[in-house]
Amino acid sequence: MRPITILVAIASVAIVLQAAEAVTGGWQPIKNLKDKHVREIAEFAVITYDSGLGPRIEPLKLVSVDGGETQIVEGTNYKLLVTATPANESVAAGGDMYQAIVYESLSNVKKLVSFIPWD
Ligand SMILES: *[C@@H]1O[C@H](CO)[C@@H](O)[C@H](O)[C@H]1NC(C)=O
């Protein structure tokens, strides 16, 4: 097979797998938590959460993404466990864990569904 044919074959398999997931609608663990897009989703969650805070509350900054699952639903739901710390405190202080749920539509519009302390 020529390389282009192989690529098309791989893409077709990926589409079939996604379609299968769409039917089941189950949560799938995110294999690569360092993925750039996963990090973007986590940053979006923290920034959006911060934008809803009162002026006297120190905003959070993202430290790390520690766990996550996705669910295919006419788009994707991301359920992430993140560590975040108040922006005026050093990362060395440790930070706290939060569970963030973000919905991303098929046209990549993100919406923060929930952001709650996690322990
Ligand atoms: C960070 O800011 C909050 C709220 O403004 C304040 O209560 C807290 O003492 C500050 N922490 C540090 C390490 O400056």
Quote the average pLDDT.
Answer: 87
- Return the CATH architecture: Roll
Number of helices: 2
Radius of gyration: 17 Å
Number of strands: 5
Encode the helix/strand succession as letters: HEHEEEE
Number of structural units classed as domains? 1
Strand order of the largest sheet: 1-2-3-4-5
Helix content: 25-40%
Q: Could you give the distance between the termini?
A: 51 Å
> How would a crystallographer describe the biggest sheet?
5 strands, antiparallel
Q: What best-fitting shape do the alpha-carbon axes yield?
A: globular
Secondary structure layout plus pairing:
Elements: H1 3-24, E1 28-29, H2 36-51, E2 60-72, E3 75-86, E4 96-105, E5 110-117
Protein name: Cystatin domain-containing protein
Signal peptide: 1-22
Keywords: Protease inhibitor, Signal, Thiol protease inhibitor
Description:
With 119 residues, the chain is α+β, with helices and mostly antiparallel strands. The chain has one domain: Nuclear Transport Factor 2, Chain: A, CATH 3.10.450. It contains two helices and five strands, in the order H-E-H-E-E-E-E. The chain has helices spanning 3-24, 36-51; strands at 28-29, 60-72, 75-86, 96-105, 110-117. A five-stranded antiparallel sheet has the order 1-2-3-4-5. It is globular, with a radius of gyration of 17 Å. It starts with a helix and ends with a strand. The mean pLDDT is 87. It binds 2-acetamido-2-deoxy-beta-D-glucopyranose. 2-acetamido-2-deoxy-beta-D-glucopyranose binds at residues 58, 86, 88-89. It comes from Linum tenue.
